[in-house]
Amino acid sequence: MKKLLPILFLIINLCFATGVAQNAVAQATKISGHIFDNDSQKPVSGVSVSVKGRNTGTITNAEGYFELKTNTPATLLISLMGYARQEKEVASSESLRINLVPAIEELNQVVVTASRVEENILRSPVSIEKMDSRAIQQTPSANFYDGLVNLKSLDMVTSSLTYKQINTRGFNTTGNSRFLQLVDGVDNQPSGLGFAMGNLFGPHDIDVESAELIPGAASALYGPIAFNGMLNTRTKNPFEYQGLSAQTKFGINHIGDGTDLGAKPLYDLAIRYAKAFNNKLAFKVNASYLKGTDWYANDYTDIDPNTNPENRGPNNPGRNALNIYGDEVAQALPNIGRVSRTGYEEKDLATYGVYSLKLSGALHYRITDKLEAIYQGNYNQGTAQYTGSNRFVINDFKFVQHRLELRGSNFYVRAYTNHEYSTNSYNTRALGQQINRTWVKDLAGNTVAPNKADSTWFARYAAAYTGEVGGVTQQNHTAARAFADEGRIAPGSDAFNTAKDQLIKTRGLAGAGILSQCSLNHIEGMYDFSSLLKVINFQVGGNYRKYFLNTGGTLFDDKDKNLTNEEYGVFAQASKSFWKDKLKLTVSGRYDKNENFDGRFTPRASAVFSPNENHHFRASYQTGFRNPTIGDQYIKLNVGPIIILGGAPVNSEGMNAYTNSVTIASFSQFAAAFGADVQNGVPFPQAVANNKDKLVKSSVPYIKSEKVKSYEVGYKGLIAKRLLFDINYYYSHYTDFMINTVVAAAPSNILAADGSVNQMAAMELLGAGRQLYQLYTNAKDEVSIQGVSAGLTYSLPKNYKVSANATWIDFNMGDADPNNIPAFNTPKWKTNVMFGNARLTDRLGFNVAWHWQEAFDWYGTFTEMRPGRVNAYNLLDAQVSYRIPSLKTVVKLGGSNITNKYIVQAYGSPAVGGLYYVSLNFDELFR
Question: Mean of the pLDDT values across residues 762-788?
């Protein structure tokens, strides 16, 4: 932090000095005008009109009219997708008439995420995808976030109607801590969860201007979370997008879902209002509410690992069904075999009535035309299901953000806070297990305490099966289960609902509730020295972040403690063009330091060769790293037979888990050999002495960062002015993957002074002195991936457009131990095809999108890393829109997965079917 603060203060001082000094004597001038289509001479709405080098801009209204105030002389930048970008010199107050010439829109696509500065997408130094406002309006998916699946390289998995997770380039999960999501520069992750919840806590479509995707490592500019890639979403500026906009959407899902519950409605209502005053002060407010019925996780496949596959199924006494909870509790009963408890289906435990409430407001004040101050506040609340190590209900979860920003034409300073309030969320699997412990009766008919419920239930089962209970058919599993289940509370009953509510309120091992009120504070800044240096483009920046943990001791060791974590990072980037702007070289590097880990330097270098404006070749070397999440560092959870212990050194102070333990494999060998000797009559001390040397002292290092090095080459260009083609190849090498390992610890030193195994420690490991730990550490194994992604967009006559992309990715394990490598969870092949016409007539438009991916095995903690097949599937989305200019309204009829084939995207998560909708979009009212 001491190293970072001087840089941040320098940026702040430069901000004020530059912004104020350059505008001290300037006088604002009103500039207005109309913009028309050059061919039809009809006014064009939505055209962006900004002042070059200043924070001043607006967009045209339905009549093609704009007005703004700025200092003159000035250069106006006029742009809209589908038209050639123009620059217009303005010397004084005047009314302009500007004609836009249609052009290949990709020539004018501008992105900011790839290099943190504005640049043409064709000359981006790394692979980048963009979804602009028009693509958002025309997507046939239910919302813009779902529509991201059509970008090449992107994977999407559904855990809930309100929660979808995205990823790029492999190692996919349902809670992705390797992928960064920014909204207006703000990290969108709740700090306790350690990953962004899709777009459950994010902007509504009605306020989204664009979304930019970087597939692959982006740590060199964005730090440790951007290990696999990042998504940068930008909302609409209230100076440029004024007036009242509203959307009302009605949808329906669960058609033909195989249940008798029938189709369910979905409602999505949103409103946005923005207003500017004298081009100095502007504000916007947003409100949206979505409500629907979640997708059902109702796969009852028996996945019990201790039963031979041919014996699994509904009649298996030891059945462990995928989406039934409570039946994971099982025992091997003598002379009977493996028996599991009767569980409850997820639909009886989960909260399938999901919703998302989003409220936000922003205030923008232009101190000068080069200096703007911004405050934004976001309040989000919602319910979703999440598939992690268990199925969780993120229930009435509140996420609050505040952002303060000072922005100039060549700098910004931004500070923000994220606060999460999870007081009503719960673990669905734990809930099923705990309900099962509330009603069990002993053989005398008395309800037993929860801590005795499981053993009592199995005793009842055994007694009934072996004929010890009169009136119960012996040697009959069905009869024995019925007897053991006597008194079982039925789903939906008053007793069941009472127990469910009480256990959700009970946190820790005795209940199912989850408490998290964690937060983070973040400050960052960047200054672009390019205009000062002239001969080279140069940017520097840095950030500081502090986490505040509060789980009441239910997850972290933070009860009655102020547990915090700090980190900071600084970066610099330089670029230079050569050979009349045909070759652009860029180098960047970033240094990050977390209080628990060594500092990391992540460089990036790239070259873009552009023989002309239509053809661009790129090559890059990138590095990335990922710090352990807050949970990886600080979890300290005693679950009875084992303590789950995070890998930060401070987290295990006073404990001997990392420093004085033996490997679990050697302990198992020692215990088995010791037991054999005792059975053969060998005295206890001698049996220990005979076998203690089988124990191997563990050497588990404290956790550290994951690392990746990546090489990429690509080409992007226009062919015959109609065909945009983009292709890239990459190779990435990964090391130090984070893993869990189990050890056994003893109070005494494992090794004696002479280096041999201590007899006393060996004896303690066999008794009450033994403590098992699940530790977070890193694997020594190395793996690599390679991949190719290619896309093309072809502009056909009469405004038709077709685009397609394909992604191939290959995972090379080499000699690595599969148990030490995170699950890849990515199909080798996936493709997307889109066809549409936004202007089929003056009022009518349509769009169709088709996604396909091949089958693969999904490995997840929900099934203890045992594989589950995700079958190949395709999704067909389509929409037809009709514009009513007099009402400034667009009517849209569409659907996602319109073939209504129910598909699973992550094993254990719900099957997703068709969602059909009709929406009304009112835009720019009262502008």
Answer: 94
The residue count for the chain: 927
Is there a contact between 418 and 189 (Cβ–Cβ < 8 Å)? yes
Alpha carbons 786 and 733: distance in angstroms, whole number: 9
Q: Which of the 8 DSSP states describes residue 530?
A: H
Tokens of 306: 């201790």
> Tokens representing 312?
């699994």
The b-or-e profile of 314-327 (16+ CB within 10 A means b, else e) is eebbbbbbbbbbbb
pLDDT score recorded for residue 67: 87
Q: What is the sign, positive or negative, of the torsion defined by CA atoms of 123, 125, 131, 133?
A: negative
Which one-letter DSSP state was computed for residue 750?
S
Reported pTM: 0.91
Domains, the chain: 1-103 (2.60.40.1120), 243-297+350-428+515-628+704-737+779-925 (2.40.170.20), 309-349+429-514 (no CATH), 632-703+740-778 (no CATH)
φ, ψ of residue 361 to 5 degrees: the values are -150, 150
Mean per-residue pLDDT, 521-534: 95
CA dist., res. 671 & res. 648, Å (int): 30
| Six-digit token string for 659 | 């420093």
Is 572 in contact with 539 (CB distance < 8 Å)? Answer: yes
pLDDT at 265 over 80: yes
Distances (CA, A) of 460 to 446, 892, 901: 12, 60, 44
Residue 282's pLDDT band (boundaries 50, 70, 90)? very high
Whether residue 674 has pLDDT greater than 80 = yes
Asked, as a colleague might, if the bond just before 73 is cis with ω within 30 of 0, I would say yes
* pLDDT tens, position by position, 410-425: 999 999 999 999 999 9
- pLDDT surpassing 50 at residue 677: yes
Looking only at the bridges linking them, the beta strands covering 642-645 and 771-778 are: parallel
CB-based contacts of 816: which residues, under 8 Å, 6+ apart?
Answer: 779, 781, 782, 783
Q: CA nearest 570: which of 593, 598, 604?
A: 593
pLDDT at 25: 39
CA distances from 20 to 16, 334, 372, 416, 618 (A): 6, 83, 11, 24, 39
Q: What was the pLDDT predicted at 923? A: 82
Considering the chain, what percentage of its residues have pLDDT values greater than 70? 96
Would you say residue 435 has pLDDT above 60?
Answer: yes
The two structure tokens encoding residue 563: 């547990």
For residue 176, the 8-state DSSP code is: -
User: Strand ranges (DSSP E) for 161-228?
Assistant: 163-168, 179-183, 186-187, 208-215
Q: Which of 897, 922, 920, 899 is nearest to 161 (CA)?
A: 897
E-assigned strand segments in 330-390: 330-333, 337-340, 344-345, 353-368, 371-387
Question: How many helices (H) and strands (E) in the chain?
Answer: 14, 52
